[in-house]
Amino acid sequence: MDNNETPAQRPVTLDITGAVEVKPSLSEAPISPLPSLLPSSDVHFQEESIDLGGESFITPEEDSHSTPSESLMDKLNDQMMESVMISDSPNNSEEDDVVPMDNLLEQFEEREEDPEEPENVKQKLTTDDQDVITVSVSAVTPEDSTPSSGSPKPEAAALEASSKETTSKDESIPVCTIFSQGSQPKAQALVPDGFQPTLIKSPSFSSSTGGSTEITPSQLAPLVCQPSPSLSKFFSDSGHVNPATDFFDSFTTSSFISISNPNAESPKSAAPPERHSFIGPTQTEPAPATAPPQPFTQLQAVFSGGDDPFATALNMSEADKRYDAWLPSEETRKVLISMATQHYSQVFVERERLAMPGLKFDNLQGDAVKDLMVRLMGEQAAMKRQVLTANSVEQSFLGLKQLISTKNWRAAVDLTGRLLTAHGQGYGKAGQPSSHNTDSLQLWFVRLALLTKLSLFQNAEMELEPFGNLDQPDLYYEYYPTVYPGRRGSMVPFSMRVLHAELPQYLGKPQESLDRLHSMRTVCQTILDNLEQGLAEDGSMINLTQENRQASLQLWKSRLSRVMYAMANCLLMMKDYVLAVETYHSIVQYEPQQKVQLLSGIGRIFLQIGDIKTAEKYFLDVEKASLEKGSGTIDTCVLMNRAFIYLSQNNYSEAHSSFAEVLKIDPKNPVANNNAAVCLLYLGRLKESLRQLEGLVQQDPALYLHESVLFNLTTMYELESSRSTQKKQALLESVACREGDSFNTQCLKLV
Amino acid sequence: MEVNQAKQEHLLALKVMRLTKPTLFTNMPVTCEDRDLPGDLFGRLMKEDPSTIKGAEALMLGEMLTLPQNFGNIFLGETFSSYISVHNDSTQEVKDILVKADLQTSSQRLNLSASNNTVTELKPESCIDDVIHHEVKEIGTHILVCAVSYTTQAGEKLYFRKFFKFQVLKPLDVKTKFYNAESDLSSVTDEVFLEAQIQNITTSPMFMEKVSLEPSMMYNVTELNTVETGDEGTSTFGKMSYLQPMDTRQYLYCLKPKSEFAEKAGVIKGVTVIGKLDIVWKTNLGEKGRLQTSQLQRMAPGYGDVRLSLEMIPDTVNLEEPFDITCKITNCSERTMDLVLEMCNTRSIHWCGVSGRQLGKVSPSASLSLPLKLLSSVQGLQSISGLRLTDTFLKRTYEYDDIAQVCVVCPYMSRES
Known about the structure:
The structure holds 2 protein chains of 2 kinds.
Chain A: H1 60-63, H2 71-77, E1 85-86, H3 95-98, H4 101-113, H5 119-129, E2 134-135, H6 156-166, E3 196-197, E4 200-201, H7 203-209, H8 217-220, H9 229-239, H10 243-246, H11 262-269, H12 296-303, H13 309-315, H14 318-324, H15 330-342, H16 368-382, H17 397-405, H18 409-422, H19 438-453, H20 457-464, H21 494-506, H22 510-532, H23 546-573, H24 577-587, H25 595-609, H26 612-629, H27 632-648, H28 652-665, H29 670-682, H30 686-699, H31 701-704, H32 707-720, H33 724-738
Antiparallel strand pairs in A: 1-2
Helix pairs in contact in A: 12-15, 14-23, 16-33, 17-18, 18-19, 19-20, 19-21, 20-21, 21-22, 21-23, 22-23, 23-24, 24-25, 25-26, 25-27, 26-27, 27-28, 28-29, 29-30, 30-32, 32-33
Chain B: E1 12-18, E2 23-26, H1 41-48, E3 61-66, E4 74-75, E5 79-88, E6 94-104, E7 109-111, E8 119-122, E9 127-135, E10 140-151, E11 157-169, E12 172-180, E13 192-200, E14 206-215, E15 219-223, E16 226-229, E17 232-235, E18 242-243, E19 248-257, H2 259-263, E20 271-282, E21 288-293, E22 296-299, E23 306-312, E24 316-318, E25 323-331, E26 337-343, E27 349-352, E28 357-362, E29 367-376, E30 380-384, E31 387-391, E32 396-400, E33 404-409
Parallel strand pairs in B: 4-11, 24-33
Antiparallel strand pairs in B: 1-5, 2-3, 5-9, 6-7, 6-8, 6-10, 10-11, 12-13, 13-19, 14-18, 14-20, 15-19, 16-17, 20-21, 20-22, 23-25, 25-29, 26-28, 26-31, 27-29, 30-33, 31-32
């Protein structure tokens, strides 16, 4: 319409969005770093100083116009001037000339529809919508609301037109109009799909304007809305943080209990001679692969133990068989069969097909808590911090367990490194032939599990890499017929397979995790099918006693449910809620005693999406299920769910009382305590909330020195006063007394 | 960060934190079996962890609430909530404290403070708290301006301000398309179909709680987004009604003019206001947003001065057998017309009756019903064409071709077979 052209001739006195004009002196002002660069403080608003990035709001000349009454404010606040936009000039004289035809038309129609609405209101609102901003040249403060008359007022259209021509900043975009952007640079008439961009505005806004002020799409098409690059980038970047990656596990109690696990120790006594049966790797050239061809049926018979019943019966305990059962891939299977049939003669296995692990990094060492204390409080104070290290414990499984249970996982990782080095799989040994045994693989599992718990995913992935997909022939007992005569199955513990499958999702490769989990699920399912058909786990025709069969079924069902949990968790991380909910649902059949927890969890997923109605349905099912059970602990679960519903309805006071009710039943419930304190903050009761959390941490540090609680506490410290650092240091000291070297200091936000 | 520090130490400190909804803490389950080296250690550690779900430790999504970790994004239609805390950092009591929170947008300035009363005194280590809420109605830069004025014990009046800038982004992309149910028989109904494509252009999943069309006074609306199965309709979008980032969803509505408008078909012409879309969505833990589109407009199909629609026509007719149709002629112009009907035969369609007969005067918005007889000489799907209306006042002729189609079949057995 013509308003694109007419106003262009008018002088534009102040382009709000315009080019950067900063006072020379101010340009030296420190630029506050983007909040996203400060992980510790980005919860709070970044204070705005001078933004040199293109949105200065005033020019030097304008500054001189400031009225005397503002001198104080100017003195205090000249780090940032503000523009004042007066939007209360409905009958701007020039406005009427250039109201686009559409607007006139619309106003005409509007008048027909609700004639009682006074016209001047409409005019005013029209200007609002059109982003008609009259800008007084003087920097009027908000207190001084009278516009300084006489200052030239650029009219809306002028602003629009000029902004179109001179800048692409978003500020010039007319307020509250949304239209399809970017993809359709042409006017809507040319859009091939025939869709019209549609203006959207907030309902309360439009209710006042009565929808009378839309701008036709063709007018607006070029005014594409693009958020200012810096801020939007920051917001979206930081807004995208995956909660799961932010702070992971930590554990609270640290009372040391020595645990002796006869099962774990026993294989050590039968210390296997190393490299006894390892033959292949001595050949560096591609070797003639695998066994000489044999009729398959014969192989099958051999593999299923029919040929060698005595060794099998004698050496394979039922429990071992149950736990070690696994279905190797066809190729691996052939190698293993040939191992068995060759009876101690040489079998050549290609080097590439063997697992040759080695440590990929030497020492993890270090204690972040102590480092932080040295930095903030000096050596003296840091001396108080005493934790176990790999040196201070027995160099054995016993010492390892001691380190784990005291939550000194870094030291524990070091110790696993030493033990593996002793086994010949130390630093730099990756890719070199070595043999495996039950212990070495357990050590690897513990090491990788701890690395994962410490969120050192990259390290874990590096060290897992030589293991491939955990299906190399030398990872099966059959590969070592002399060391483990007659023993069959996987040397790799099932838990390590789960870990191996779950790891990629923490490194941004959830699809890979899902692939691995699916193949694990297939194996579990096949084994369960075999068992139900009266076969042994691996499908062989071995008779199991009823007792053993039941035990095996139970074990494999629980393993299957663990895999399903891992799949559901992974899907949840991928935000594939439909499949995640379905998968969690399917676990109920394997773990009926977890029905209440599972249904509550699904309900919470729906709350996370925002679907409160469906969440309520699930919570209702939880109530029914808990009634059936009729135990006392379930009541807290129902109350907790109710609190979450209130929370989602923005009813923080009711949510708070629901959490308080949980505490009446279970006063030590850490979740309810923490959540009640969070509700208090949203109710504007910061001091109370702080007092509650502080009290909890002091009274029962075992339960409340948890990173989620500490994160909440430090966030509130930051909100409360400028002296949060001292208070955080006090927290650090109490952490230092109790927690091991695995404590994640990031939640204290001290750095 | 403290820009004012160089100049003047203030006794009071102002802190602002955006209150988005809290998030649920997620665990990372690492488990082992009893036979593994750690024995029950891992299991015990997970049980003792307060953030795990007791009895189902492998469930990742916990119940522990954590405060927002960053500013996040704010979108048009959402509510901006913020905690404002003014804390007395000094060792002396401070008097007459006034805290003001304003929100400056590109078009207006709003006062968001719950109260504008002066607090008479603030002891050391105590604070004034305020939680502000504002439904965001504009896109682009917003600046939260917090001003604090107070009097020290010495009687000195002090004042400082802080600015917090944030961008309001657009959450949805909405495109609309109208379909006129015009071309054939349904033209008598004057139905309009609206297809609305709604795309989530945020970075988080959105639960679409409500997407409804509020029709203008002329129309009744039927939502075509559920499939009736039994007593309860199921959504066409499946069980879970959420929209992943960048996903688009099509909503369909059918609009029928109300009877008082439908009778006067001529009323609906030119640009008509159809209504507006009202969209309500929710995200994390019930964070709510609401938007309305502007009035959607449609260019009604032009009927010209005289509109010819069909009231009755058979779908299948026999070859070379006369059949009846009923036409409705409506005067859509502002003047009275005197009409003459001419019928021109086409290759397949032959009109029965006299061509060039007078239909008489038709006043504006009036209509008349016209029974006609015709036959087809060709089999197959035949288009009815060849009606001409001439307004004798203005000597203007209106041509009507391809009014409708009929299927012409042969009633006799073919001899060749």
